[in-house]
Amino acid sequence: MSNHTFTVRRPDAATALVADSDLPPLHHYIDGAFTDSAGEYTLVNPADGRTIADVPRGSAEDVDTAVAAAVTAFDTWRDTTPKDRADLLLAIADRVEANADVLARLEAADAGKPRMVADDDVSGTADIFRFSAGAARAYTEQGAGDYVADHTSMILREPLGVIGAIVPWNYPLLMAAWKIAPILAAGNTLVLKPSEQTPLSMLKFMEIIDDLLPAGVMNVVTGRGSVVGARLSEHPDIAMVALTGSVNSGKTVAESASDSLKRVHLELGGKAPVVIFEDADLQQAAEALREAGYWNSGQECGAGTRVLVHESVAEKFTQLLVEQVASLVVGDPAAGEDVEIGPLVSEDHFTRVTSFIDRALADGASAAIGGGALDGDGYYVAPTVLTGVQPGTEAASEEIFGPVVTVETFTTEKEAIDRANEVPYGLAASVFTTDAARSLSVPRRIDAGTVWVNCHLVLANDVPWGGFKGSGYGRDLSLYALQDYSRTKHVQINHGRR
Ligand code: NAD
């Protein structure tokens, strides 16, 4: 138990992350132009509760207009060569980099992101466009061949058509880029819906790339999931709906998509176990968790949130983790570039996370550090480590999505693996061990789309990202994303002489 207390660093009264001149046009982006909408709603900065801007509240009709534009644009875009598409994607990456500062500031203000997280999101955004440009040109199918006498078979890889992309608030620009880049690289057009809580960076993105893409290739409709997202999921002219979001939204989207039998691509929640064996380098594990458990204030689907540590080293490890967590800098993203933990994204989410902590404490857990809300304006929660968490309790099995790491203990390797797999999620996991055999055998038994060994939350755009079980299906990033956003067609030519 630590008696460390966190305080929220506040900026000078005169410091503002964004000026009015930084804001994008506050309209949908449809058919190559910013377009009015009938309704609006207000965005607030979660660091201080102040209004940032009013943005369009999209309707089903707005979605229909955007889909019609994407359908028309697909006719031409589908026939562009990989090189043409790659050149455009590289130009987009250049624009993102040239506007990195304003994109990061908008993201920080809209989502409450520390500047270091926002900067990382923007550089990851530029890189996925670069990766996808290269991938578009390098991606090939098996060569033509005769599998029936006198008949040559060719496998064509084709785009799917119009994709509906629906993205969350935790990485508004980056999660959108993970969809946009491979979707365009594969020759599709799209209609994207940002989270209603964080649409600014996507509208800015459209402003800065406005002259690059042909009209209708990429469209953005802002607004609520139950209206804009629902229409995208059911729209008969959409070939696939790709959602990054919560498990509940995933189920609703899959259900609405079933009527038109469109493809569904789901990147959903997670509850990543971090299995620490008795032979692990405990200092390395504690340092890795400082980042992996608390990056983006723990609002991270792959966060290392659920430690399963061997009982013989649990006390030592917890002490090392608490030391690491005590050094985290909490503050308003406008209060300095060294701020590591910002506010949670909204009042609702703040209430959700603090209630999780309260219920865990009532369930018998103890806060080794942190343990609740921080004083003052904004939605700040103290970086928290909960010990004595019992298997099967809510804190051990549900996604909290805040700066909270729980610690449970285990006795045998089999128990560790079974417990790592007992939650309904299967997005990511990690194993800390210095035993070479264990570092190869345990990851194979863990039911998660990514398993790290002696690290956690180390990402690269070249390798696939996505889950199993309740975390959904489909892969973002890497060549596998291009595969998901395209289809194969067999063309067979009879060349026998008659
Ligand atoms: P959310 O599910 O509430 O919202 C995600 C998006 O879905 C938003 O744009 C929202 O408006 C839309 N939506 C909501 N209801 C909908 C409906 N009925 N039909 C269509 N669209 C609908 O999720 P969130 O709170 O924005 O984001 C946090 C969640 O996202 C967490 O569970 C997190 O783990 C998950 N996430 C997963 C990944 C991944 O790669 N697997 C990455 C980031 C976030």
List keywords for this structure.
498 residues, alpha/beta, Aldehyde Dehydrogenase, Chain A, domain 1, Aldehyde Dehydrogenase, Chain A, domain 2, 2 domains, seven-stranded mixed beta sheet, six-stranded mixed beta sheet, 21% strand, binds nicotinamide-adenine-dinucleotide
What does this structure look like?
The chain has 498 residues and is of the alpha/beta class. It has two domains: 20-268 and 471-489, Aldehyde Dehydrogenase, Chain A, domain 1; 272-460, Aldehyde Dehydrogenase, Chain A, domain 2, CATH 3.40.309. 37% of the residues lie in helices and 21% in strands. It has helices at residues 60-77, 82-98, 100-111, 115-138, 172-185, 200-209, 225-234, 247-258, 282-292, 314-326, 347-362, 394-397, 413-420, 436-445, 478-484, and strands spanning 28-30, 33-35, 39-44, 51-57, 145-148, 151-159, 162-166, 189-193, 218-220, 240-244, 263-267, 272-276, 304-310, 366-369, 384-387, 404-410, 425-426, 428-432, 450-453, 468-469, 472-473, 486-494. The protein has a seven-stranded mixed β-sheet with strand order 14-15-16-13-12-18-19, sandwiched between helices. A hairpin with a 2-residue loop joins strand 1 and strand 2. Helix 2 packs antiparallel against helix 4. The chain is globular. The N and C termini lie far apart (87 Å). The model has no long low-confidence stretch (mean pLDDT 96). Bound molecules: nicotinamide-adenine-dinucleotide. Nicotinamide-adenine-dinucleotide is lined by residues 166-170, 175, 193, 195-196, 224-226, 229-230, 233, 243-246, 249, 252-253, 267-270, 301, 399, 401, 427, 467, 471. It comes from Corynebacterium glyciniphilum AJ 3170. This is Gamma-aminobutyraldehyde dehydrogenase. Its EC number is 1.2.1.19.
